[in-house]
């Protein structure tokens, strides 16, 4: 079993810092929530690298909200529910679509500049959206623009203290209440940060897989530390693989945005044949999981490691204007988006599940909140609708801040029980272990899964469990422990769900089974795996 704390510490021997609100992580969720919370509270933002290192920064497509007169809340609600394949919480989706536009206005107030055409917002359409409702910035650099505006606002704010290069090891709890966190500084010194509210905004776990569009820092720390603290982790089997990441020697798995297909790009296999009509009537704009599996099937059939995305039939001016970042990045590797077919393959992109919260972003542990990709609010269901993640972070960030205002002052004086004396030496060769873990996940818990494969994967992961008896001191060691935790949660939940739904595909159970499986899988450190029925229709 995974222990309660990653390190043995005596709390009363650690230096203590008091803040009203502790924000762990720095993407759109962390920045936006910290700025809103600072209106009435002192805020500490802790990031393990810097304010600019997060998944948000790499978000190209944009942010989905009902802005246009031709669009409606009802349309956005329906599109999200359909993409979520029967597992969305209707109430949470309702909150998202109704409060999204207000959140976008807040972003604009905080300095975000979205693209405009003739004095109106330039709205685009992405896969599985029925209307144009995606706001974007600098063509395809929306995330970067949002992070730029918010981080400038946060840094200039005297009520927000930012700690770069600090690692949060664990959450401290007492009697079902979160009292703060144990933090390690760059020099290895540890301290206890105490707060009235702690908000996890630590992003996803892209590094579970060898190929991912996520940055190096996406190691599932928030999910793992919340799990250790006794939070419920919901729907961890639903991992979204983006169908089209650049697949070229020497190049990173750079995202080729869904919006490229939204603007007319087509997919071709290695023989140059367009293939999506064999898989779905929406062709290239089918839901992401379908497109990703179709690509894998074509790759297997043609014994190739990639397929092509082709937008060469559109005018070069439009392509360069609409996708400047993608165009420039491809060019750096000798690929011209306007004249070349670009080699792409699926890569891990987004984690639909996470720490279960209510509609105010609060977990089952009092004073502990989760926002953004680390959370499971019920919005995404079994498959996230493109560009809903940025809106989700803002809408629930705003709600979390309102809920914090109702909290009484913290009175608990926490004490940590040392469960097991850690004796073994620090673990060796973390980099190799991480690579091995990623390979296990790709092979057994990737786009296509089966009982035999998942069991074998789980067995291989369990061989790494002795790490929890080791004395850990380095960031890479904590990250590996967190990745191992998330890998086991994902694999266990995938083994439990004997059907195919949304982003979870079982070759031995290829059909969706609403009669038995229209429910969530929920994992808890001491209660094990349970199921949660879905009340609404």
User: In one word, what is the shape?
Assistant: globular
- SS class: alpha+beta
CATH topology of the domain at 239-349: the name is: Flavocytochrome C3, Chain A, domain 1
- What is the mean predicted local confidence, pLDDT? 93
Give the total of beta strands.
21
Instruction: Enumerate the spans where pLDDT stays under 50 for 5 or more consecutive residues.
Output: none
Please write the CATH class name of the domain at 239-349: Alpha Beta
Give the N-terminus to C-terminus distance in angstroms. 37 Å
Short précis:
This protein has helices at 28-37, 73-83, 90-109, 142-155, 221-229, 258-262, 288-301, 316-322, 324-332, 388-404, 430-444, 451-462, 475-496, 514-517; strands spanning 16-24, 43-46, 63-64, 116-117, 120-121, 123-124, 134-135, 160-163, 167-174, 177-184, 190-200, 233-234, 239-246, 266-268, 307-310, 342-351, 354-356, 368-370, 375-376, 519-524, 528-533. The chain has 537 residues and is α+β, with helices and mostly antiparallel strands. α1 packs parallel to α10, α2 packs across α3 and α5 (221-229) crosses α13 (475-496).
């Amino acid at each position: 079993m995974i222990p309660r704390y990653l390190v043995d510490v005596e709390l009363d021997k650690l230096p203590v810092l008091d803040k009203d609100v502790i924000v762990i992580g720095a993407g759109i969720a962390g920045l936006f929530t910290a700025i809103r919370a600072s209106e009435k509270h002192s805020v500490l933002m802790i990031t393990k690298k810097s304010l600019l290192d997060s998944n948000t920064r790499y978000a190209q497509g944009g942010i989905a909200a009902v802005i246009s007169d031709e669009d409606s809340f009802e349309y956005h609600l329906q599109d999200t529910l359909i993409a979520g394949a029967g597992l969305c919480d209707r109430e949470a989706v309702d909150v998202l679509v109704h409060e999204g536009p207000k959140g976008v206005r807040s972003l604009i107030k905080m300095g975000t500049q979205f693209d405009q055409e003739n004095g109106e917002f330039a709205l685009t359409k992405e896969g599985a959206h029925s209307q144009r409702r995606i706001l974007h910035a600098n063509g395809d650099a929306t995330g970067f623009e949002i992070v730029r505006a918010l981080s400038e606002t946060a840094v200039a704010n005297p009520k927000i203290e930012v700690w770069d290069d600090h690692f949060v090891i664990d959450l401290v709890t007492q009697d079902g209440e979160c009292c703060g966190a144990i933090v390690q500084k760059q020099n290895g010194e540890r301290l206890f940060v105490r707060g009235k509210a702690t908000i996890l905004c630590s992003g996803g776990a892209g590094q579970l897989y060898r190929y991912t569009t996520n940055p190096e820092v996406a190691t599932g720390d928030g999910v793992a530390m919340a799990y250790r603290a006794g939070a419920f982790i919901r729907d961890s089997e639903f991992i979204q693989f983006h169908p089209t990441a650049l697949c070229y020697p020497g190049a990173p798995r750079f995202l080729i945005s869904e919006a490229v297909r939204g603007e007319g790009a087509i997919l071709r296999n290695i023989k140059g044949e367009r293939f999506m009509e064999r898989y779905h009537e929406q062709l290239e704009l089918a839901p992401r999981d379908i497109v990703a599996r179709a690509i894998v099937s074509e790759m297997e059939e043609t014994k190739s490691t990639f397929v092509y995305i082709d937008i060469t039939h559109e005018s070069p001016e439009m392509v360069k204007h609409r996708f400047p970042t993608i165009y420039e990045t491809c060019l750096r590797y000798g690929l011209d988006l306007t004249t070349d077919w670009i080699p792409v393959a699926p890569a891990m992109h987004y984690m639909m599940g996470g720490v279960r919260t209510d509609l105010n972003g609060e977990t089952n542990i009092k004073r502990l909140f989760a926002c953004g990709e680390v959370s499971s609010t019920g919005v995404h269901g079994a498959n996230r609708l493109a560009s809903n993640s940025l809106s989700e972070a803002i809408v629930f960030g705003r709600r979390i801040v309102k809920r914090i205002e109702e909290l009484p002052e913290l009175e608990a004086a926490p004490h940590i029980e040392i469960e097991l004396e850690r004796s073994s030496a620090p673990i060796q060769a973390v980099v190799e272990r991480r690579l091995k873990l990623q390979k296990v996940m790709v092979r057994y818990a990737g786009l296509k899964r089966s009982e035999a494969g998942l069991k074998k994967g789980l067995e291989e992961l369990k061989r790494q469990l002795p790490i929890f008896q080791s004395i850990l001191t380095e960031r890479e060691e904590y990250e590996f422990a967190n990745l191992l935790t998330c890998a086991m949660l994902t694999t266990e939940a995938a083994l439990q769900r004997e059907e195919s739904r949304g982003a979870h595909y079982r070759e031995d159970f290829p059909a969706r089974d609403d009669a038995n499986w229209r429910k969530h899988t929920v994992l808890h450190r001491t209660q094990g795996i349970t199921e949660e029925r879905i009340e609404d229709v």
